[in-house]
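Local shape tokens

___
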Amino acid sequence: MDAVDHGKHLLAAILPVNGDGGRKELLELALRQVSPEHFADPQQRLLFQMMEWYLENTGTVLPLAAIGDYLRSFPPGTAMQYEEYYRSVQLLGTSPEKFGYHAEQLRELAAERLTAEAFAQGMEILRHGAQDGQDWLKGHAAAREHVLSSLSEVERTLHLQVAPEGDVRAEAMDVMAEYGRRHEQRKLGHAVIRTGLAELDEALGGGMQRGELVLVAGGTNVGKTSLAVDWIWRACVQQGKNVVVFTSETNRLQVRTKIIARHSRHLYAGDSRLPEGLNTKDLRGGNLPDDKTEFLRYTVNHFAESPSHGRCWVAQVPRGATIATLDARLSRISRMFPADLVVVDYLMLLRSDRKRQSRREELSEIVIAAKEMATGYLDGRGVPLVSPWQMNREGVKNAGTTRDRFTTEDLAETAEASCTADIILGLLPDGIEEAGKHGRETPVKIGTVKVRDGERLRDQMRLIVDYATCYFQPRQSGGDALAMDFGSPA
């Protein structure tokens, strides 16, 4: 089948047959999964637009008799032509069960067609120049910009997801059933992603919820990525959750090394042979003493083989990537397993889908798209999305001297981050105690800058962080040792 055949079968699954009124629920689903641009045949495109128009005005599926009303202003004979085409589609009698297959194929073929058009137009701009709206584009830079922007749009249309809707007043039983499910999950610790910091989790209503955009903000080198790694590890190992990590600032191999180092700190807490775990610096540089190699092997095997651990998928973000790029990858990964936590390190290094007049406008678009990605994941199921964010210099200076905490005004580059994010946490060095007092460990503090659905911490939480293993814990608390469940190294 080609795109025209799939389009015709999709419409046939919706239109009335033998006076049955058609399938309104499939039309509503189609309007959320495909757009008129997905149809390769102009007749199908206009028929789909008519169906959308009629549904909006009457709440029912377009009948044959209504075509003339829509096409009254068109040239003579147009209505008759579309009435004939309508009948030919009805005759297919496509089963509703085939609807999903045809919708998916329609998106795939449209993406193939639009991709070819993007590259063809890019070559035209490169070689001869081309008109794009009011702009004349020419040269390799303009060609690349056009292709990247067009491909981002292709990714967006290819991965359109179902956006749930309905009358809440008619969903009383669903509301109670959903609450019961969440209540049971809460008791079992399944409904949220916990940070491992009890006071913070309590303020967040148990932890990070599905659909929330969480920004970990601070100055340079304060440990934003290290805190994200700690949460990645805690979600995967302690909570058995599936985690997907998109990294652009840090190389994928470095992230992998940090996660293994964090696991070693967990395994050997309280063990005099390796109480501080394996240093990331030694792993990255290949500097482990010979007598420590077995500890590395055991750590790697334990992380890989324990059946209670979730998936930990780390993807390197290509240069020039957009949220649409990440959304497409996440959609592909979700065919293997559903993600319970997504970490993007970090949003400020991504590009917007379209070139804007300023970087501030681009970042605003990126933040909004990231929030949409978090809420729309898996047809509205949602997933917590965490990303580091930078605080501006003045904010870092004031928070470290006069205010002792961050405000939303300290966020770098865009006010959209403070408006769109559900949770903003501020991470600061804690200068109360002199450096070096704790050896490899450093005092820091974390506070809630914004919590949309929860409570803000009254005081900053004072923490100890070991950057060598991305290990965070409240000041003066104990370790988090794990009972080894299959033989430790000799």
